[in-house]
Amino acid sequence: MNLAILISGSGTTMEAVITAIKEGRLTNINPAIVVSSDSTAGGLEKAKKLGIKSIIVERKKYSSQEEFGNALLDIFHSNNVDFISQNGWHPLMPKNVIDKFLNKIINQHPGPLDPGYPDFGGKNMYGLRVTCARLGYIALVHADLWTESVIHYVNEKYDKGKLIQIKPLGIRDAFFVNDINGLRKKSDILKKHSEEIQKKLFPLEYEDVIEVLQEFANGKNPIYERKHRLIREENFSQLEEAKKLAIELFT
To answer: Looking at residue 61, what DSSP letter applies?
Structure first.
């Protein structure tokens, strides 16, 4: 399976995946190309050290999603790519790429998703913002103490593709508040706690991606379905408040 790994930042998951391939823990996969949407991404140097070809494709240089997609398709074609893994990739994937690689593009997300329903995904929800939103929501509604790593298929909307696999992470030392004003007063604690939880989540994300890639390399097409909705209707407003504050705190 010729794999394209798409990044926008530090490339830690990319590094974990390629290392797993080189060590033989991830088999039947060739890391064909690393594509970065940001010329300053730290993952580019990691790819160089690992001996993997990389290229920069910045969304802002294209006048439309279609042109952006055509540029990506040219790269994938010239490198014989047949599977794509978004690992910290921020741009919305163009429709023409999705159509060409239907059910062959996956994305990792550092928080609970429930495609088609309110959750901890969507535009501008990535990295520490996701963990912060989850912790903020827990504080506001006194929810159960957990978060999770999620792998899902990519479609035309941010974080709305069908789920593939999840890995839960328990949370300790959470705090609770009565409203958004109370949460704002604890912003410093919330930020610190988000950073601590993210460090614990990283290894689970790496393991999650590696396991899912092996499934696809073995010819499988896994799907995971939730038995219950993540967010109750009476808590929709607290979810939006938590997400808004998370974006403010990690801008």
So the answer is: G
